[in-house]
Write a structure and sequence with these properties.
Distance between the termini: 25 Å
Structural class: alpha/beta
Radius of gyration: 18 Å
Shape: globular
Order of helices and strands: EHEHEEHEHEEHEHEHEEEHEHH
Largest sheet: 6 strands, parallel
Number of strands: 13
Number of helices: 10
Strand order of the largest sheet: 4-5-8-9-10-13
Strand content: 15-25%
Helix content: 40-55%
Length: 287
């Protein structure tokens, strides 16, 4: 296959500075990288809470400096970790009114994350209690539905994913993304991913690489290719989860990822769908 193009690509999971963990790019540098390669949009994520104000400033900067010579947009998100008050409908509503496009369930505060890290779980943000989703989550589902945005599953366990997704679907949530199911922190088997797609029609977000400890990262590309083959390209979204200083810069990582898929039999149409079309639908953009 030929060389892939990043023109019009959308990445819905990128980390940038400011962050407690130092990232390779700050928000403006990431925006400039997106503009440079012709990307359509990026959703910036932080484990510390919200990026909606940061996205606004990026877009305003783009408007003032580039004066309309590109169609790039930065979007913000809300992550329901302890810093945001956990499962906090008021914080979610505020973020949505300010333009958030993704609401993530707990990541670093998730019980599953803390257990996997052998950390204290006394301050875990739970999504399931006594076998049912916590009451506050039902209010979040209603907000996600009303604003027609994305619910991302964060770092909760596969068992919690099933329960949460079923409850969210019952509440009318249409846009559900299983966050990097291949990462050991989530640890969803390929068979379970197939089942999630079959039973609930979710989108599986498969990312560039995963941390293995000690500042080392493992390529996910072969695993992602297997997921595309097993689950179908229409239910797999290509994201980087980029921004780590140990990994290539965001645009290099994304190009490597897309090129690998292209070189291993993924058609141009399929690749476009996983890097453009799914995201356009999730973000509510015009094609």
């Amino acid at each position: 296959m030929g060389k892939v193009s990043l023109k019009g690509v959308i990445d819905m999971h990128v980390h940038s500075n400011p962050d407690i963990r130092h990232r390779a790019y700050d928000d403006f540098e990431l925006m400039e990288a997106g503009i440079r390669v012709g990307a359509r949009a990026i959703v910036i994520k932080t484990h510390q809470g919200t990026t909606v104000d940061r996205a606004y400033l990026c877009n305003r900067h783009n408007e003032l400096v580039h004066q309309g010579d590109n169609d790039f947009t930065m979007f913000g998100s809300v992550t329901m970790n302890r810093q945001m008050g956990g499962i906090n409908p008021a914080a979610v509503e505020s973020g949505l009114k300010l333009g958030a496009k993704v609401i993530w369930l707990p990541t670093q505060s998730a019980r599953n994350n803390l257990e996997k890290m052998n950390a204290d779980t006394s301050a875990a943000v739970d999504v399931i209690r006594d076998g049912k989703v916590v009451p506050e989550l039902k209010s979040v589902f209603q907000l996600v539905k009303d604003f027609d945005v994305v619910l991302g599953t964060g770092h909760i366990s596969p068992d919690e994913c099933y329960r949460v997704v079923e409850a969210a679907k019952d509440a009318g949530v249409k846009k559900i993304v299983i966050t990097h199911p291949e990462w050991w922190m989530v640890g969803m088997s390929l068979e379970s991913q197939v089942r999630m797609v079959k039973d609930y029609g979710v989108i599986l977000e498969h990312c560039f690489a995963q941390p293995m400890g000690g500042g080392k990262y493992k390529s996910n590309m072969q695993m992602n290719l297997e997921a595309i083959e097993a689950c179908g390209y229409r239910n797999v979204m290509v994201s980087t989860d980029g921004g780590q200083v140990e990994n290539p810069y965001w645009e290099i990582a994304l190009e490597q990822y897309m090129q690998y898929l292209s070189d291993h039999g993924v058609s141009d149409e399929e690749l476009h769908y996983m890097t453009h079309d799914i995201q356009v639908w999730l973000l509510g953009l015009d094609k």
